[in-house]
Design a protein that fits this description.
The complex is a heterodimer of chains A (about 550) and B (about 160). Helices cover about 50% and strands about 10% of the residues of chain A. Chain A is mostly helical and about 550 residues long. Chain B is of the alpha+beta class and about 160 residues long. Chain B has a four-stranded antiparallel β-sheet with strand order 1-2-3-4. In chain B, strand 1 and strand 2 form a beta hairpin. Chain B is globular, with a radius of gyration of 16 Å. In chain B, about 30% of the residues are buried. The N terminus of chain B is likely disordered. The chains are: A mainly alpha (about 550), B alpha+beta (about 160). Chain B: InterPro entries: Ub_conjugating_enzyme, UBQ-conjugat_E2_core, UBQ-conjugating_AS, UBQ-conjugating_enzyme/RWD.
């Protein structure tokens, strides 16, 4: 109980801070005035999202080069809490297929310059990681050497007999052929390049199959002569070279991960290409994060790969996630809110910090931690040995360890509760389509008029996400600082606003929804304002060093 | 008509064994330890003339994976070996046993490559740094180290 009281202070309104709070709120209120109209438009507030929208304009230069494009820079119009501002990120969203199509376009574009088959240019570009400048440079210097080096030409003097030439790079049937790879003598199809190294089709397929996943140029088994994509398709009997291209592109993305990132969401195959990385250090300095959005509308941080994590920056986010993983075993255990009575299986909700439980149904007394009977635990402030052992293992000073665990448990529980609520809100979104459809059917409003529900849900989701990560910021902040207390008050305001909007979205009757439409606008606008205020307050904590991850 | 991987490796290794038995090269030899298990061999290498290993014999093990010859065998020195590219456990750093492997290589070419490695170490990526230094600095001392490390093969 005492720990509960202690923690409640974080959420209590302190009279002595009222003037600071009023000043801060007044500052924000002047920026986001809500009009008293009956059907007001939802106020368009500058948010993180608008900065990172994908550019609609197509650039004239069609290339995936690093730093080849001049990114259009637009200054951030938001109020600045400290020196400097960050430009909008210039990025695009691609798929491996999209990248491959772009590669083929470049090959076609370069073909007149190189005057060699397109399939050969593809191999040259693959070798130089699609760095056209570098390739052209080397090509100018040592054209013939390059072709030999990459296995596109041979110095061997091969007869130019037409009939003889036609046998190369084709699958042929041979009788009594002895393959030196499998040492089998049989009637079989075989394959060979101009080098004359001939092997049975099964061995060649086995070899190519292994190589397709490496993303490298595939050569003859006995020399450096290269197989082209059409050769691969001939040997395998179906279009397999696309698999090689996929592997090559994945390898490319891996090598250039300063500019290319896979979308981290499960099963999403999008790649975000950041054209100009020069502004990233400024994001880090000002404790902003470079959030991007893929073609499937997944938003994530380009820097650390996590979901959108405002107001936490990447450093706080990484530290928090690392800590969460480390503590998860204890916390998943400690944070269980309800358990069945070991005796009669009635659900019991735990209240307070005491582990001595009494089932209200059958009066059985047991330990909350180990669910064993309470009698052997005795009295005199005895703690369950399981819990105690965990504490002993954590630190040499049990008292400090216990204090740390309690603080972290408090913030993790809040973080987790909003994560759970966000999932419930997501389920809520599934029913919105039904509601909008019902609105159209029964009341006859247009699709556009029903959009306020979707907009409200979007605002709610963003508010929940910011609120969730704000507890990570609070955890790493100096609790005694005034600004931290203001931050905590902002958390409370946003939490209340979010719950209020969530409650409104539970309404089922279409007629009631339409009647209360002004409330949707008002509450969504308020959530948006409080979300922005919390983000800015959190960023100020970071910029001033009040919030920092301990190393 | 797909060839089973196991079948491929067996036929290949049988063929290699026949070739080795009929080979006239005296400085290398190899054969399976167990007549019923073709995937584990031991090999023997004689140190090349005019090198610090001249006159010495070394024993190696060869473990063939089921996807041999598309992947290289695992080879280790069983005899104690003092060499820049061999570590204390007998592991060997040699490019043709790793990224430069090709299915056309076989036991004979591997053992001949190891033999060449004895006379021409790759000092740019040593597993035994002291040996790499001595090779360039003091061949007499290097030879002493080799002999101090050497053990006669008792089952040859």
């Amino acid at each position: 109980m005492s720990s509960g009281t202690e923690n409640d202070q974080f959420y209590s309104f302190d009279e002595s801070d009222s003037s600071s709070i009023e000043l801060y709120e007044s500052h924000n209120t002047s920026e986001f005035t809500i009009h008293g109209l009956v059907f007001p438009k939802l106020i368009s507030v500058t948010s993180q999202d608008s900065e990172f929208d994908i550019n609609e304009d197509e650039d004239g230069v069609d290339t995936i080069y690093e730093g080849m494009l001049d990114a259009p820079l637009t200054k951030n119009n938001k109020r600045i809490l400290c020196e400097g501002s960050v430009p909008n990120l210039s990025y695009e969203c691609l798929t491996t297929k999209g990248i491959f199509e772009r590669m083929l376009q470049r090959v076609d574009h370069l073909q007149p310059i190189f005057a060699i088959p397109s399939a050969d240019i593809l191999i040259l570009l693959q070798h130089y990681d699609w760095n056209e400048e570098r390739l052209l440079e080397v090509w100018t210097e040592k054209m013939d050497e390059l072709l030999v080096e990459l296995g596109l030409s041979t110095t061997a003097n091969i007869k130019k007999d037409n009939d003889y030439n036609s046998h190369f790079r084709e699958v042929e049937f041979k009788n009594d052929f002895t393959c030196i790879i499998c040492c089998d003598k049989k009637d079989t199809e075989t394959f060979a390049l101009e080098c004359g190294h001939e092997y049975c089709i099964n061995c060649y397929r086995h070899y190519i199959k292994d190589k397709l996943h490496e993303g490298n140029i595939i050569t003859c088994m006995d020399c450096s002569l290269a197989l082209k994509n059409e050769d691969i398709d001939k040997v395998m009997g179906h279009p397999s070279s696309s698999k090689l291209m996929d592997s090559s592109i994945k390898s490319f993305v891996q090598k250039h991960n300063r500019n290319y990132k896979w979308c981290p969401f499960a099963d999403c195959k999008s790649i975000v290409h950041l054209r100009d990385t020069s502004s990233l250090p400024e994001y880090t300095r000002l404790h902003y994060s470079p959030f991007v959005k893929c073609n499937s509308f997944h938003r994530f941080c380009f820097n650390c790969g996590f979901e959108v994590h405002s107001p936490a920056d990447c450093k706080i986010t990484t530290a928090w996630v690392k800590k969460a993983r480390k503590e998860s075993e204890i916390l998943n255990w400690v944070l269980s809110h309800t358990k069945e009575c070991p005796k009669c299986s009635v659900n019991i909700e735990k209240n307070g910090g005491c582990n001595h439980m009494v089932c209200s149904s059958c009066k059985y007394e047991f330990c909350w931690i180990c669910e064993g009977p309470w009698a052997p635990h005795g009295k005199n402030f005895f703690q369950c040995t399981m819990y105690k052992n965990n504490e002993d293992n954590k630190s040499k000073n049990p008292q400090d360890a216990n204090k740390t665990l309690k603080k972290y448990t408090f913030y993790y529980r809040l973080f987790n509760e909003h994560e759970v609520s966000a999932k419930l809100d997501w389920n809520l979104g599934q029913t919105l389509g039904t509601k909008v459809h019902a609105l159209q059917e029964r009341i006859g409003i247009s699709w556009i008029d029903g959009q306020f529900l979707s907009e409200s849900l979007k605002v709610l989701n963003e508010g929940r996400t910011v609120l969730k990560w704000s507890f990570a910021v609070a955890y790493y902040s100096d609790a005694s600082h005034n600004l931290t207390k203001i931050f905590v008050d902002n958390q409370m305001l946003l939490a209340n606003a979010v719950e209020s909007l969530s409650e409104l979205l539970q309404i089922k009757t279409p007629e009631v929804i339409m009647k209360r439409r002004p409330e949707f606008y008002n509450k969504a606008g308020y959530v948006e304002n409080r979300t922005t205020a919390l983000m800015e307050c959190g960023r100020e904590l970071l910029c001033k060093g009040i919030c920092k991850a301990a190393e | 008509m797909a060839v089973e991987e196991g079948g491929c490796v067996t036929k290949r290794l049988q063929n290699e064994l026949l070739q080795l038995l009929s080979s006239t090269t005296e400085s290398i030899s190899a054969f399976p330890v167990d007549d019923n298990d073709l995937t584990y061999w031991v090999g023997y290498i004689t140190g090349p003339k005019d090198t610090p290993y001249s006159g010495l014999k070394f024993k190696v093990s060869l473990k063939f994976p089921q996807n041999y010859p598309f992947h290289p065998p695992m080879i280790k020195f069983l005899s104690p070996m003092w060499h820049p590219n061999v570590d204390k456990s007998g592991n060997i750093c040699l490019d043709i046993l790793k990224e430069k492997w090709s299915a056309v290589y076989n036991v004979e070419t591997i053992l001949l490559s190891l033999q060449s490695l004895l006379g021409e170490p790759n000092n740019r990526s040593p597993l035994n740094a002291v040996a790499a230094e001595l090779w360039d600095a003091d061949m007499e001392e290097y030879r002493k180290k080799v002999l101090a490390c050497y053990e006669e093969i008792d089952d040859y």
